[in-house]
Amino acid sequence: MADTCEIDHIVASERYRLQTFESLAHLPLITRRQLAIAGFVYRQNECVCPQCGVKINL
Fold it and tell me: Which SUPFAM superfamilies match (predicted)?
């Protein structure tokens, strides 16, 4: 789980979160945007909410 400072940055920046999904070009942009709006990031081959730790299997 991320530390508080990292969580604050991620939550505050939808653009940053959307950029983490760039490697998933096979997903439609609308899906990637919805995940980013919901607070998820994609890193280390996981789609995860840094605030609560929920992971989505893509």
Answer: Inhibitor of apoptosis (IAP) repeat (SSF57924)
Question: What is the reported pTM?
Answer: 0.75
Tens of pLDDT, residues 2-55: 566 766 665 668 889 999 999 998 999 999 999 999 999 999 899 999 889 999
* Rounded-to-integer distance, Cα 48 and Cα 39, Å: 8
- Tell me, what DSSP letter sits at residue 17? H
CB neighbourhood size of 37 (10 A) = 11
The Cα–Cα gap between 39 and 41 comes to 7
C-alpha 12/C-alpha 56 separation (Å) is 21
CATH code at position 29? 1.10.1170.10
